[in-house]
Amino acid sequence: GTFNGTPDHITGSGTETDPYQINTAEGLKWFRDKVNNATKEPDTKICAELTEDIDLNNEPWTPIANNSITKRYSGTFDGGGHTISGLNVTGEFVYAGLFGTVKDGTIKSLTVAGKVSPSNSQCIVGGIVGYASNAVIKNCSNHCSVTGRTTSIIGGIAGFNSSGAIIDCYNVGTISGINYAEAIGGIVGSNSGTISNCYNVGTVSNDTSVGEIAGHNSDTVENCYYLAGTNLNAVGKNNSNGNITKTES
User: What is residue 44's three-state secondary structure?
Assistant: First the structure.
């Protein structure tokens, strides 16, 4: 359902110091709709904290902030160490994950489980977020299977990490592409920011530019780990300005 006001079971005012406290699927949808219906940028800055695990029951999920041009989530979303399970993203989204796009925002202490497999042939897709721009994603884990199609950018935590930081995150989900994806990585599909202290133990399907940590890298991958015995490198394609340190199977 759509709420006009704040639903009974949500407390808080959405500020950094008094975030919305969310403990139900209905509350999470309300929060998503509030961000997606924002008419000005400050409205995408609302902050929330999970106080319980939430099961989305595999209902079709519209990502939070799924239009990078006008709506990019810029607040702080604190999972509180909880899990959002039953995530099911299958629609025609270009930016797909629990979140579509996060810009200058922070997602932390959150686990997601389910599947992220948008039907759009060209998509930027990750378990936590599709497109992260100057964002901080920390202490998060992905248990979703994440799949993208032709010319997509696909990662376990984020599809694209642009000038932000993915820190202390791990992936156990299966990450795969269909028909020549552009970049596939266990943590991030394409990285032009920092990936630090992360590990991947999920299967990453072999395609074009594929890596256990990142498919493409043009910035920093440091102190990351992946399973020994896989036939992939940490980074599929490392640009000349890409820097990989202390990263091994």
Answer: helix
Q: What is the DSSP string of 16-30?
A: SSS-EEE-SHHHHHH
pLDDT per residue, tens digit, the chain (249 aa), is 344 556 666 889 999 999 999 999 999 999 999 999 998 888 899 999 999 999 999 999 999 998 766 689 999 999 999 999 999 999 999 999 999 999 999 999 999 999 999 999 899 999 999 999 999 999 999 999 999 998 899 999 999 999 999 999 999 999 999 888 899 999 999 999 999 999 999 999 877 789 999 999 999 999 999 998 888 899 999 999 999 999 999
Is the distance from CB of 230 to CB of 206 less than 8 angstroms?
A: no
The pTM of this model reads 0.95
List Cα–Cα distances, 180 to 92, 122, 148, 183, 209, in angstroms.
19, 11, 10, 9, 9
Cβ atoms of residues 222 and 192 within 8 Å:
no
Q: Would you put residue 68 in left (φ > 0), alpha (ψ -120 to 50) or beta? A: alpha
